[in-house]
Amino acid sequence: MTDIALCDFEPYLDMFAEEIMSGLRQDVKTLPCKYFYDERGSQLFDLICELPEYYPTRTEMGILRAHIGEMAALLGAGCRLVEYGSGRSLKTRILLDNAPDLASYVPIDISREHLYNSARALCKRYPDLEVLPVCADYTQDFSLPCGSRAITQSVVYFPGSTIGNFTPKQAIQFLRQIADLCGRGGGLLIGVDMKKAPQILELAYNDAQGVTAAFNLNLLARINRELDADFDLTKWEHFACYNPLQSRIEMHLVSLCDQQVSVGGARIEFAKDEMIHTESSYKYGLNEFEALARKAGWQVAQVWMDPERLFSVQYLTVARCNRGAI
After folding, report:
1. CA–CA separation, 189 vs 83, rounded Å?
2. Mean pLDDT of 244-270
3. Edge-to-edge order in the sheet of strand 275-282
4. What is the pLDDT of residues 196-255, one digit of tens each?
5. CA angle, residues 236, 239, 243, in degrees to nearest 5
6. Smallest Cα–Cα separation from 57: which of 73, 45, 70, 74?
């Protein structure tokens, strides 16, 4: 198999350090959830997706399998399929198996090693498909590679519940960027997690095996490794809860004692029970997400849900471009 060319826009170490230190210097300390996904973090997230408590992945996969014919027909021949946060591209394979006439597939992920291995596996599985991987933080500026085949439309695939990691205001801005990328006539196939009983949500983020806890704590291990920090992971604990006022799950790391940590030469003080907010996951009603999408220049064309209405996969079309197609 011919080696693949990877477009590399991986964030530089100084950007990583700047964002980590900025978050830790706030009155309410935070860490950007996008940095969960180093190689080890990506592996742990793959394990999370297989946990019995974690309903989103298996529910979304069920929706895809039940309605894949309709979804693939929306892509059409000559479509450039761009996936944000591709990981192992497992869900995408359901699309690729049923959309043989794509112009190209562009997986985008922040974890270079994970992306490269996944892209090689896809090239082997789909030898006639042009796979053009891009290592990038997809919330930042990057450019798409030019494929060799003519493109009729661009469709972004954004599965999972990752849109929930953005605040509603951030989500509108992010969706506007995707609309600009796709241009008029483009589409967005997106996973949106629905509002539901808090008990279901809290179980999904506090699994009995402790995989989500390990995933959360791995962020501190990454900071130790890459920023010469000295977090003692035994002095931290994973905590996740549902915030009904914000309609979101919140993930935190809780300091188990008064402690001082060195990060890149700077000393950071933590009080006992002080928390670092590492991730939010907003949940939406159908009307709420439709209103949010409309503000970003999209219109909801189709919605598919599971029988229990736990999760939705939605197809959006560009109603308004903000800066023109990229």
Report:
1. 9
2. 97
3. 236-243, 248-255, 275-282
4. 999 999 999 999 999 999 999 999 999 999 999 999 999 999 999 999 999 999 999 999
5. 145
6. 45
Which residues make Cβ contacts (< 8 Å) with residue 170, sequence separation at least 6? none
Separation CA 318–CA 298 (nearest Å): 5
Taking phi first (over 0 means left), then psi (-120 to 50 degrees means alpha), and beta for anything else, what does residue 28 get?
beta
Mean pLDDT, to the nearest integer, of 269-284?
A: 98
- Tokens encoding 221: 């291990």
User: What whole-number distance in Å separates Cα of residue 158 and Cα of residue 82?
Assistant: 9
What is d(CA 247, CA 243) in angstroms, rounded to the nearest whole number?
6
Of 91, 35, 315, 102, the residue nearest 188 (C-alpha): 315
How far apart CA 174 and CA 87 sit, in angstroms, is 19
d(CA 106, CA 95): 13
Report DSSP state, residue 244.
Answer: T
Q: Say whether pLDDT at 10 is over 70.
A: no
